[in-house]
């Protein structure tokens, strides 16, 4: 990928280019999709979209279409099983969802990738590494939190909560609400061992090595053992790669009727909500009639843009002032000389009120000269 | 931002509860001069202790924390249940205790033959409670003086916070059912909890030691 060094790219453009380059390096192929999708696809998987209404409209042939609220479902739909291989795609798309705070539709820019097929630990680790590398490409200060649904699944198999109490427990877990878990388990008269395991799952947070040590001691059954073992293998790979900003956090929970295996969230210092979200979703694949497994993540690019502070620079390098009498062809030549030297230029007859420029110049008597603000006030 | 030691930004609820909460923070080793003096100042900081307090409207604390303007804060469980902010609830501070309850005229008999009219500030809590009991209700959202609604026939019952029950008693009302006990909770922004983990966890530990049972 070659870029003209003189091009003044905005930070958001640079971010996208960097991420595209990163994903292509690891063999992910760009996946472009339509803005519309048949409404049916989303209705049958409504829970996967975590609520919110969908913008629908009728096509000229009477079919009900929707502006896509999600990318993963479309990619999964178009995927074809092929044994022993994986398909790797990345995307950069706008999606349409209702905003929680204003309760109106919002356009959200998402960039992400999906790896579908015969997954093994290598592929899972690779996706996690790419998640960490994506964050590193966006900021100097990031955190990637990893959880494993198998651990929670194993725990729930053992404790056997009613669906209603399970919901309550999962809410408390997401809030790291240890006093709430304490009260809930006591009110259900569950053994102390279960209660303490639940509290450990909610409150344990820290580096991979530290948390894994704690985990081994709280395993209750084989499902948990297996998940812990898988997590250990993955963490070994990540540790070997020298990642220090990766932590384990089991309060990350997502819908178990879609997700299994690793689940992860990425955070950037200075942005108050998560910017990256991903996980393994073999169960969704199964629901959509695919035999393969799948893992992927998405980055909310609009959040990063909203909190970008680098915009406080200049609009142009040079503001070139000219008089009404200046010959247009000579003026254009002068502008071109400056752009050829790598500057961005705006030619004006007056200094515009809110323009931020690095340097002021004037075009006088057919030549370029330095100029000073007081001359024009 | 101070690079040597990250400051923890704390949103405290204005009022009596907030002052009690500050006392708890002070005994836990996070004092801040001048905070209790009567002034119009809203922000107070103690760089040595690595803490910055600000007073906000109690019902706004969760918003400040959820949006990251405050790293941690203290909010009543009623607010958390009503607005369901995406935050961590780290401690039950065991203060500001009261309960969310259904209240109505003494000897109130629920006529299950028609929709129950409920006046409340807490429409989500009321809706959740009655949905879980499969009782159809009509919510009348009010901002204050809820007790007057059943007296004037605006509603059949009210859902509100009850501390001692005196206001209810003086208006010939009584608690019919308790929905959930309420107390003040220490909450944290999810991302601050990660980037200021050491500072927040150590604060939580110190505060926990000072909570009165």
Can you give me a brief rundown of this structure?
Helix content of chain A is 38%, strand content 26%.
Structural topology:
The complex is a heterodimer of chains A (377) and B (213).
Chain A: H1 11-25, E1 29-30, E2 36-38, H2 39-43, E3 56-58, E4 64-67, H3 72-77, E5 86-98, E6 105-117, H4 121-138, E7 142-148, H5 149-159, H6 163-174, H7 178-187, H8 192-203, E8 205-207, H9 208-218, H10 222-240, E9 246-249, E10 260-268, E11 276-280, H11 282-287, E12 293-300, H12 301-306, E13 316-322, H13 328-340, E14 345-348, E15 357-364, E16 367-370
Parallel strand pairs in A: 1-5, 7-9, 13-14, 13-15
Antiparallel strand pairs in A: 2-4, 3-4, 5-6, 6-12, 7-10, 8-9, 10-11, 11-12, 15-16
Chain B: E1 8-13, H1 16-27, E2 43-46, E3 51-56, H2 61-66, E4 72-76, H3 77-83, E5 88-92, E6 98-105, E7 116-120, H4 123-132, E8 137-141, H5 148-151, E9 157-162, H6 166-170, E10 173-182, E11 184-188, H7 190-195, H8 197-210
Parallel strand pairs in B: 1-3, 1-4, 7-8, 7-9
Antiparallel strand pairs in B: 2-3, 4-11, 5-11, 6-9, 6-10
Keywords:
heterodimer; A: 377 residues; alpha+beta; nine-stranded mixed sheet; four-stranded mixed sheet; B: 213 residues; alpha/beta; five-stranded mixed sheet; 8 helices; 11 strands; 31% strand
Describe the fold and architecture.
Chain A has helices spanning 11-25, 39-43, 72-77, 121-138, 149-159, 163-174, 178-187, 192-203, 208-218, 222-240, 282-287, 301-306, 328-340; strands at 29-30, 36-38, 56-58, 64-67, 86-98, 105-117, 142-148, 205-207, 246-249, 260-268, 276-280, 293-300, 316-322, 345-348, 357-364, 367-370. Chain A is α+β, with helices and mostly antiparallel strands and 377 residues long. In chain A, a hairpin with a 5-residue loop joins strand 3 (56-58) and strand 4 (64-67). In chain A, helix 7 (178-187) packs antiparallel against helix 8. Chain A is elongated and about 90 Å long. The two termini of chain A are 46 Å apart. Chain B has 213 residues and is an alpha/beta fold. Helices cover 30% and strands 31% of the residues of chain B. Chain B has helices spanning 16-27, 61-66, 77-83, 123-132, 148-151, 166-170, 190-195, 197-210; strands spanning 8-13, 43-46, 51-56, 72-76, 88-92, 98-105, 116-120, 137-141, 157-162, 173-182, 184-188. In chain B, the strands form 2 sheets. In chain B, strands 2-3-1-4-11-5 form a 6-stranded mixed sheet. A 5-stranded mixed sheet of chain B has the order 8-7-9-6-10. In chain B, a hairpin with a 4-residue loop joins strand 2 and strand 3. The longest helix of chain B has 14 residues, at 197-210. Chain A binds chain B through residues 141, 143, 145, 175-180, 205-206, 247, 251, 267, 269, 271-274, and chain B through 66-69, 86-92, 189-195, 197.
């Amino acid at each position: 990928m070659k870029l003209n060094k003189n091009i003044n790219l905005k930070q958001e453009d640079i971010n996208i280019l960097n991420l595209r380059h990163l994903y292509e390096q690891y063999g992910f192929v760009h996946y472009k999709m339509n803005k519309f999708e048949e409404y049916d696809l989303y209705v049958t998987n409504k829970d996967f979209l975590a609520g919110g209404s969908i913008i629908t409209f009728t096509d000229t042939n009477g079919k009900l279409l929707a502006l896509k609220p999600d990318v993963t479902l479309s990619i999964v739909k178009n995927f074809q099983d092929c044994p022993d291989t994986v398909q790797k795609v990345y995307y950069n798309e706008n999606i349409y969802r209702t905003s929680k705070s204003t309760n109106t539709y919002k356009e959200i820019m998402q960039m992400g990738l999906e790896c579908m097929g015969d997954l093994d630990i290598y592929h899972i680790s690779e996706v996690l590494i790419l998640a960490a590398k994506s964050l590193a490409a966006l900021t100097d200060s990031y955190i990637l939190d990893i959880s494993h649904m198998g651990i929670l699944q194993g725990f729930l198999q053992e404790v056997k909560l009613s669906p209603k109490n399970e919901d309550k427990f999962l809410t408390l877990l997401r809030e790291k609400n240890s006093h709430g878990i304490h009260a809930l388990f006591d009110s259900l008269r569950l053994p102390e061992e279960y209660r303490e395991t639940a509290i450990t799952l909610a409150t344990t947070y820290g580096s991979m090595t530290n948390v894994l040590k704690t985990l081994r001691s709280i395993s209750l059954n084989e499902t948990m053992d297996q998940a812990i073992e898988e997590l250990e293998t993955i963490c070994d790979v990540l540790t070997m790669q020298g990642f220090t900003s990766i932590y384990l956090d089991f309060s990350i929970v997502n819908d178990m009727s879609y997700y299994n295996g690793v689940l992860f969230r990425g955070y950037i210092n200075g942005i108050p909500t998560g910017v990256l979200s991903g996980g393994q979703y073999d169960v969704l694949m199964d629901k959509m009639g695919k035999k393969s497994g799948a893992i992927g993540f998405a980055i909310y690019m609009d959040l990063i843009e909203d909190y970008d502070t680098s915009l406080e620079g200049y609009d142009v390098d040079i503001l070139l002032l000219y008089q009404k009498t200046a010959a247009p062809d000579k003026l254009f030549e002068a502008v071109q000389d400056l752009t050829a030297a790598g500057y961005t230029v705006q030619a004006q007859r007056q200094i515009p009120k809110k323009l931020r420029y690095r340097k002021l110049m004037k075009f006088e008597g057919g030549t370029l000269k330095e100029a000073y603000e007081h001359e024009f006030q | 931002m101070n690079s040597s030691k990250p400051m923890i930004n704390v949103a405290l609820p204005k009022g009596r509860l907030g002052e009690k909460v500050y006392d708890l923070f002070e005994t836990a080793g996070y004092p801040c001069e001048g905070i209790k003096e009567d002034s119009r100042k809203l922000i107070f900081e103690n760089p040595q202790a690595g803490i910055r307090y600000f007073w906000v409207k109690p019902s706004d604390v969760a918003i400040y924390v959820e949006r990251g303007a405050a790293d941690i804060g203290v909010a009543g469980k009623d607010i958390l249940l009503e607005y369901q902010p995406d935050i961590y609830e780290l401690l039950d501070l065991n203060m500001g205790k009261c309960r969310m309850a259904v209240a109505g005229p003494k000897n109130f008999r629920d006529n299950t033959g028609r929709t129950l009219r409920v006046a409340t500030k807490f429409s989500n809590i009321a809706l959740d409670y009655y949905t879980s009991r499969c009782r159809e209700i009509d919510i009348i959202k009010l901002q204050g003086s809820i007790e007057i609604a059943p007296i004037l026939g605006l509603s059949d019952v009210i859902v509100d916070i009850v501390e001692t029950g005196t206001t209810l008693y003086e208006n010939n009302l009584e608690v019919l059912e308790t929905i959930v006990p309420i107390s003040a909770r220490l909450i944290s922004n999810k991302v601050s909890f990660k980037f200021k983990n050491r500072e927040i966890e150590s604060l939580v530990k110190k505060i926990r030691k000072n909570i009165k049972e």
